């Protein structure tokens, strides 16, 4: 069969990885086709992930700040929430970005083909769209088909009161009682939104810590605040069964340790959000017909140039492995496009920051203290409590702290963690420090503007260095 479209570069999936790869490939002179099953570009991140969640978290922060203002003499009264308007705001934010992407694709002459793509051979992809089937023959391909929420099989998914993150972002209603299954980043961000909007929120987490992966000391200020706000958190707990009844979802729980009773009794919830992780889409695109290896779990293995086992086919983003983060996907997308265009490059990023946009935010990058201990690394830690920061006191948010992890022998920064408002914005400096091989003195001697929260990074360096010995 003769192909309907021929191109040098085909990108499958228009999430942050895919659109970045397509734009870069086009900029480098490759005629590029971008295949996406949905009408809007932007993938999970723009449509049902990073962006809508942050728009709603902004609203949550405003509600909380308005309540807090009472402490300094300004009373806004109780918030009146117009859910339709809030939903429109979120949709406007998303629409602005996705329309922007469509414009950027057009400007670069990237041809967008809408429909579900599947490989037919190592150089052919068939796209099933509303308008029929399109056969595309390509020279190079970048697979960027992303991931989707894990659906626990024991739950009644045909009941709209059982939600994944996409459903929760729809904001159909503010349930009176919400159960969040999974105390990771996504679960806790959504818990933050719904709690601020007025839901009574319960979180259950199977592991013995919220957000496993972050140092426990970073979690504590968030756990304390959630408790103060009335969010019930149960660790080492599993939501075992959900029984859909007319008056609500009856959920029963089990202790993570077999034989032990659960700390929370079976009870009715108005809605249940399941946020227990994401599964890669690697196994859904007939990659085998292109000869591309896919793991049992659906991940596609790649080398340091993002090449799969088939040299002219690359893979990037959520479907090549953890961490499943947009900024990892975009970095990989750029790299894959550049390598396909003939540049001699490989993955060089040393570290990838993680951020939970909860309240307070939690951000970390590089080696964590827990990891350093487990690996027997000789490290030193500089920790600066925000209770000693003029800016944190001024905004009434002193529960945060900043810590830097140093190699004890070289005094180079190898990791860092921040908990507090705007931690996600602040962590970039620590990432730069690690990438540049900064020593403690480099950070301590860099003049940070006063009074800012960024000073806490320099202060943490000075604490480690012994320049600051008495914080109070
Ligand atoms: P995706 O964004 O998953 O895009 C893949 C695209 O491929 C999709 O558009 C899909 O429709 C398309 N596709 C798949 N199969 C086919 C096919 N066969 N044919 C055609 N098209 C196909 N990350 C952050 O860094 N920061 C955050 O704050 C953040 N918040 C998040 C909040 C939530 C609620 C969620 C769910 C995720 C969040 N993430 C965040 C993660 C982030 O969204 C992902 O890491 C990122 O979207 C991955 O990009 P990607 O390009 O690999 O894939």
Automatic annotation (TrEMBL):
Its cofactor is (R)-lipoate; FAD. This is Dihydrolipoyl dehydrogenase. Binds 1 FAD per subunit. It is an enzyme of class 1 (oxidoreductase). It catalyses: N(6)-[(R)-dihydrolipoyl]-L-lysyl-[protein] + NAD(+) = N(6)-[(R)-lipoyl]-L-lysyl-[protein] + NADH + H(+). Keywords: Disulfide bond, FAD, Flavoprotein, Lipoyl, NAD, Oxidoreductase, Redox-active center. The active site is a redox-active disulfide bond. Belongs to the class-I pyridine nucleotide-disulfide oxidoreductase family. Its EC number is 1.8.1.4. It comes from Cognatilysobacter bugurensis. One of its GO terms (biological process) is 2-oxoglutarate metabolic process. One of its GO terms (molecular function) is flavin adenine dinucleotide binding. The chain holds residues 156 to 627 of 632 of the full protein.
